[in-house]
Inverse folding.
């Protein structure tokens, strides 16, 4: 019996080799960096979320106070002496001040000048101090020595005391003059922080590699040094914003900051302090608004500091 071999077409067999296997789409790996990690941490931080919500609310109130009150704090028909020092009620939540003006309306409108001073001062201080600190730290040598000695002149002047002296010489002030005065006295702190951060970063490997590849000094400074050195400046600026708002309130309380017919929380506190025993509500509500605002910015700054500090990870 002979074996027969049938020659025919073979059934197609599935080729399971890896070469012909369908390619699986791989998810792009997330590029790790200080800023992306910090953003993830901030989203998970309840302190940051609460602080950011309060700050956003305050910024909206300062920008558009008409959303929160229909009244005007300085209109001729807004104040009535017949309502002088009346206590809070269902119709007027914060009561009236000595001039018969609605305290709630004035508190809402007072947020504008107080927050303008804080934000504008912080921007001026950050820009001037960061740029000069970047220049001093990167150049070094005689440039660093001259800028450092110049900075020490302003750094030796206390913020509040210097502000009192300058504002008393300028006379009547507003939110913008107060911001300018505090910026003149406040930039040395940012300068020192930025200078130290640049000095610690300019000898890192990525700077040496960029220089070996022929990158210009300007490109190295703004493309490599600045993004890696700016983190501590942002932290200090966020915390200092609340300090500047408190300083404006102190200057206005002393009568040398924002002055009538302008309105700010410090000015309201100054007017109400002499009648605290007779009408405590006139003092408590603007004081509470000031405290909450300062606390909100400090919470925001603390959360940013924790997110940007690698030692706390």
């Amino acid at each position: 019996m002979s074996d027969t071999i049938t020659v025919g077409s073979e059934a197609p067999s599935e080729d399971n080799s890896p070469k012909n296997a369908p390619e699986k789409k791989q998810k792009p790996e997330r590029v790790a960096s200080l800023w992306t990690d910090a953003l993830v941490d901030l989203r998970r931080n309840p302190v940051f979320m609460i602080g950011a919500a309060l700050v956003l609310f305050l910024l909206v109130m300062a920008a558009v106070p008409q959303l929160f009150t229909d009244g005007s704090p300085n209109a001729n028909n807004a104040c009535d002496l017949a309502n002088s020092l009346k206590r809070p009620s269902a119709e007027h939540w914060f009561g009236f001040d000595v001039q018969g003006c609605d305290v709630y309306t004035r508190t809402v409108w007072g947020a504008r000048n107080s927050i303008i001073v804080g934000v504008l001062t912080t921007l001026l201080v950050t820009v001037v101090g960061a740029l000069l600190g970047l220049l001093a730290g990167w150049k070094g040598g005689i440039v660093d020595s001259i800028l450092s000695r110049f900075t020490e002149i302003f750094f030796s002047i206390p913020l509040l005391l210097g502000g009192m002296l300058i504002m008393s010489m300028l006379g009547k002030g507003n939110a913008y003059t107060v911001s300018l005065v505090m910026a003149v006295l406040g930039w040395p702190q940012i300068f020192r922080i930025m200078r130290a951060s640049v000095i610690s970063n300019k000898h890192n490997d990525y700077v040496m590699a960029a220089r070996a590849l022929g990158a210009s000094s300007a490109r190295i400074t703004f493309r490599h040094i600045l993004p890696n050195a700016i983190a501590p400046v942002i932290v200090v600026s966020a915390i200092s914003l609340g300090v500047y708002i408190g300083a404006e309130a102190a200057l206005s309380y002393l009568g040398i900051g924002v002055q009538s017919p302008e309105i700010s929380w410090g000015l309201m506190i100054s007017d109400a302090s002499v009648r605290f025993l007779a009408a405590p509500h006139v003092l408590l509500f603007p004081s509470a608004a000031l405290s909450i605002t300062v606390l909100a910015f400090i919470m925001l700054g603390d959360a940013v500091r924790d997110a940007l500090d690698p030692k706390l990870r």
About this structure: The first helix runs from residue 34 to 43.
